[in-house]
Design goal:
This protein is an alpha+beta fold. Helices cover about 20% and strands about 35% of the residues. The protein has two domains: about 200 residues, no CATH class; about 375 residues, Porin (Beta Barrel), CATH 2.40.160. The strands form three sheets. A 16-stranded antiparallel barrel has the order 1-4-5-7-8-9-10-11-12-15-16-17-18-19-20-21. A two-stranded antiparallel ribbon has the order 2-3. A two-stranded antiparallel ribbon has the order 13-14. The two termini are about 55 Å apart.
Length: about 575
């Protein structure tokens, strides 16, 4: 018997000990693989792949090796819920192994006698497809290792189960039939162990993942040959073609696997067109701002800093330390396809309701009760100058925003929310709408503080898995302290068609009214917006690869500044986004 066993195992010495479906343990490198790839960073996730039916002519590429070893080891030992697999006592339980092959009957006998193969609880290796030769070889290798242990135990006191000579002859025939596949498995195991060791030695951090985004944008402004500035001066829109960029690096750290400490570094030089800004009194409106606008001269600064952690399944707490807006803290802004500044709408207005930007932007804290429940409640507080110990600054004496939002999500396709923001600041400064809608009142070389009570309704509805309708309406009651009251309205509707043309690509449209000053007491010295202009936007995000998208988009402003005396203005941009 020992000679016959030697004839069996000498054919594939590299694969003994590399069992991938052994009931008492998995591949020796599996623990290393799981430890090295335990983060959620998509760059390091091991993915599924359908393996070739024939032995490869040459060594697989590293990525293919990772995928195949993961399929053999990780998937062979746990189901989608992370539970251990049930022992398979009969090959007939594998519904996708053809019973008319001689190897099927041979393996069936070995499995039933020695119990050496595990599989998925549903009785299949992978859906309804046939068992590949590599998967069969992995199961055969498990039986080799199981029988090796049994033979080793025969000579010991109280030795275990005896191995029949005819079973060894069957194993020898199976090993010869699947010699190439068994050898390939052994080579791949050696390669994955070497690559895993290299990864462990050179990994960035065991708790922190690095991801980032880079935007290149080529933009220009057209139209507006005959316009009027807020002070009544006749003018024209003037702008040059510009090439601008924004770079973000996120360091995402988790200490428990459920919490998140985010530190974001940002450099940007996306400046506004003068005609779309009130800087120096040259602008006619603040509509049409790009969704990724902002400039610090491409100096590196901390743009986002917060720590988020759950309290069981009941609540989620966020403590923010820098440059945070209300939209960063609410559970959702209800415009899922277009909210992202890097891959969503090309305009600032088209991303979400502008009332999220009213008031302070700084540091604070928020809570969300029932983050995964059909009804969730978010609330929080932001201070504009929390680090300044001056008399009119700090956490409670300077500008601030306090907010609350109730979100109702009865299904995956439909959600609706009601939002309230109470703010204290020098004007609203949300970089959208007419200049009058900013409610900035100058007095004694300063700006009079404004208290805002803003109310919003947001909704999103998926007509299909790929067609999403979203929209919002916002109303703000502004109280200019000691001077009078004003009213600002805005609304919008969006349509996004996902996977349009190619997978991951999106065709989208935005139509709405950017913030408009509808009423203002004469004591404020502000001109009400008598007319109504529309914001019309169209874009196509072309997903070139998993990490690169190119988005041409056009923003059409009718009656800019809500003034029919102004010619229409067009803003065009081509945004290229690199994510990693």
């Amino acid at each position: 018997m020992s000679k016959l066993l030697w004839n069996v195992v000498k054919v594939t010495p590299a694969v003994l000990g590399a069992s991938l479906f052994v009931s008492n343990g998995a591949l020796g490198a599996e623990d290393k693989i799981n430890a090295a790839f335990s983060s959620d960073n998509s760059s390091f996730k091991l993915t599924d792949s359908t393996l070739s039916q024939a032995a490869p002519a040459s060594e697989s590429a590293p990525s293919e090796t990772l995928e195949q070893i993961q399929q053999y080891s990780g998937e062979g030992n746990s189901n989608s819920n992370g539970n251990s697999m049930n022992q398979v006592n009969s090959v007939s339980e594998f519904s996708d192994v053809y019973p008319d092959d001689w190897a099927y009957e041979a393996l069936r006998n070995l499995v039933e006698r020695y119990g050496c193969i595990e599989g998925y609880p549903d009785g299949s290796f992978r859906g309804n497809r046939a068992l590949t030769r590599y998967e069969f070889a992995a199961g055969l290798n498990s039986c080799l290792q199981q029988i090796e242990r049994l033979i080793a135990a025969e000579g010991k006191e109280g030795g275990g189960q005896q191995v029949a000579p005819e079973d060894l002859e069957t194993l020898e025939r199976l090993v010869q039939e699947f010699q190439a596949e068994l050898a390939t498995l052994g080579t791949r195991v050696d390669n994955i162990e070497a690559r895993t060791e290299t990864l462990e030695e050179n990994q960035f951090s065991t708790t922190t993942k690095l991801n980032g985004e880079v935007i290149f944008a080529l933009s220009d402004i057209f139209g507006g040959e005959d316009v009027v500035t807020p002070d009544g001066e006749e003018s024209e829109v003037d702008g040059n073609t510009v090439f601008q960029d924004r770079v973000r690096l996120n360091f995402d750290t988790s200490f428990t696997g459920e919490d998140l400490l985010r530190t974001r570094l940002e450099a940007e030089n996306v400046q506004d067109f003068e005609s779309l800004s009130d800087t120096g009194g040259e602008g006619i409106t603040r509509e049409g701002q790009l969704g990724f606008d902002g400039s610090n001269g491409n100096d590196i600064e901390i743009d986002e800093l917060y720590y988020q952690f759950p309290i069981g399944n009941a609540a989620e707490i966020t403590v923010a330390g820098a440059d945070t807006e209300v939209d960063d803290l609410v559970s959702t802004v209800l415009n899922p396809a277009l909210a992202s500044s890097g891959n969503g709408a090309v305009s600032r207005f088209g991303r979400f309701n502008p009332i999220y930007r009213i008031g302070a932007q700084g540091a604070g804290a928020s809570f969300t009760f029932g983050p995964e429940a059909p009804i969730s409640l978010s609330g929080g507080y932001l201070a504009g100058d929390p680090s300044d110990p001056g008399r009119d600054s700090g956490v409670g004496n300077g500008s601030y925003s306090a907010f609350g939002q109730v979100t109702f999500k009865p299904s995956e396709r439909f959600q609706i929310a009601g939002t309230y923001v109470h703010s204290y600041s020098e004007g609203f400064n949300y970089n959208a709408g007419s200049i009058g809608s900013q409610v900035e009142v100058e007095e004694n070389d300063g700006t009079v503080p404004v208290v805002g009570n803003s109310y919003g309704v947001e909704a999103s509805f998926g007509l299909t898995d790929n067609i999403i309708l979203s929209g919002w309406g916002g109303y703000t009651d502004a109280i200019v302290l000691g001077r009078g009251d004003a009213t600002v309205w805005n609304y919008a509707g969006t349509l996004a068609i996902q996977d349009f043309g190619t997978e991951g690509s999106t065709l989208a449209f935005v139509v709405g009214q950017e913030p408009k000053l509808t009423e203002a007491e004469s004591t404020l010295g502000l001109e009400e917006d008598e007319d109504t202009g529309l914001h019309v936007e169209g874009l196509y995000k072309w997903q070139v690869t998993d990490n690169i998208s190119v988005t041409p988009g056009v923003i059409w402003l009718t009656a800019p500044g809500h003034n029919d005396d102004n010619d229409d203005v067009f803003v065009g941009t081509v945004r290229t986004t690199f994510s990693f």
